[in-house]
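Forwarding these from the shared drive since the link keeps breaking.
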Amino acid sequence: MEFSSKLLENAVNEIAQLPGIGKRSALRLALHLLKLPKENTSGLTQALNDLREQINFCSYCHNLSDLPVCEICSNPNRDSSMLCVVEDIRDVIAIENTGQFRGYYHVLGGIISPIDGVGPQDLTLDSLEEKVKKGEVKEIIFALSATMEADTTNFYIYKMLASYKVNTSAIARGIPVGDELEYTDEVTLGRSILKRVPYENAIVDK
């Protein structure tokens, strides 16, 4: 792709690094930005800078947050006996949108995937075990996507927590195998939370 402007080429190359954005889509976005008033693009630039410089990880659940402790974890009206284990912030958003879960979350920051070089040591498993050790959590809900890597992660956590007096459950498999949690419709996801099953049963059902 030939450019008449080096500035445009640089902008297109930067935008094309985003997931799912090819060079042609990047060019369309760059040209669209050029048509906008300068204050609009300045606002976008500021928002991206603020996101990169000021975003925090919640000290309790590891979710992305504007504050040291996120709004969910600082809400005293939620059920502290239930802890929902998810991969990342996209899954928290998806489950919150169902309105069917009123406990707290634990964000792993990924799933075990040897082919991608991600092992248990790369996830927030130590702090998850610390929460369970305190004894306030009565149920761990596995709410990872229906993939082989996610199932491996679920089983690893299940074995890790086996010596503690905590129930483990998994969301019902209304979600097609291989699907990502964030792309599941809210009704299906909400029902899968409500109809969760003991994790031992989920192992047998496979």
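-- next protein --
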Amino acid sequence: MRPRKTSVHRSFVIGDIHGCNKTLLKMVEDVLLLTPEDTLYLLGDYIDRGPDSIGALDYLLHLKDSGFDIQPIRGNHEEMLLDAVSAPEARSIWYSNGGWGTLRELGIDSPENIPLRYLDFLADLPYIIATGNYVFVHAGLNFQTNNPLLDTSPQFMLWSRDCQVNSAKIDGRTLVTGHTVTPLYAIKESLATSHICLDNGCYDKGEISCGALVALNLETRELLVQENIE
């Protein structure tokens, strides 16, 4: 991608990619028209299930190395990969959730042989990013605690399916998550609430009202949708 410069700073966030690299490129380069002056947040789950997980990682690394301001967080699929490297007993759960296909892309049969450039990138991913108006986390925050930003466990942030948002506990910010596949109409409805979920199940293009990669302009709350083109 050739950097295009502009004096206008924009901020976007993209939902779960799951190895849909062609769709990701189309979103970033033709829909968002991303420039080095922009900021792009990503909600995790870059790998598994789709056809080109390694291509998606390579593209994110390319953007980072080219000076684009990308701010990716960790999803449960990245966590499963890292667990599979460090703990052989954890491999079966990753394999059954698309990990075996990701290994085949690399032409290897053991997580221990995954190139360090990918492992280092994934190991450095934070679980959460908070800005003045938004909190980005893969699955959710535990609002049963007094301070969800500090007291939510990594397990909850990566795997929760039940997140009842109390915006006052995150200083009036909007929570933005992925992880739970959400029909496009429900994503659009969530734009007026304190919890926006941007996972439209990009890898599952045969599902009604799903199968797209979804992004959000954080200044305008405009939803941008790119249908799966894999």
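The domain at 11-77+120-227 is CATH 3.60.21.10 (Purple Acid Phosphatase; chain A, domain 2). Helices lie at 21-31, 53-65, 76-86, 91-106, 116-123, 148-151, 154-159, 184-190.

- D.
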